[in-house]
Amino acid sequence: MRKLVLVVLAFAAVAFAQSAITLDTSRRAELTCTTDGSASVYLAPGKYVTRVTGADSRLCFSQTPNSDGGTVCGASDGGVQGELFPTGTVMTQSITGNQQRASCRSTGAGVVVFTGAQ
Questions:
Q1: What's the average model confidence in pLDDT over 8-36?
Q2: Which domains does the chain have, with CATH numbers?
Q3: Best label site of 62, 63, 89, 93, fewest CB within 10 Å?
Q4: Rounded to two decimals, what is the model's pTM?
């Protein structure tokens, strides 16, 4: 039984070491969300830690900005709703070649922050 516990602890230590996240603050983007939607930001493909603060926010992704070069998440953009994330959400996210622009909208003063991660 003691050996089993030691083996489990050893595997847990290895798993924890593999899950550590290093932030790369040189790759950072911040969106201020409004009811009309935010301007879109370009996110280079890669891994990010994404945080939602201030108010629940809807997050939208697109390969290119809309025709006016701005939001892809506003109420006037053909009813695009986006995915709703509650205040306090913190998640890791991988941005691929088909999700390089992000924007958001919120009924309050929501802020979405993307910070590069390794």
A1: 75
A2: 23-117 (2.60.120)
A3: 63
A4: 0.72
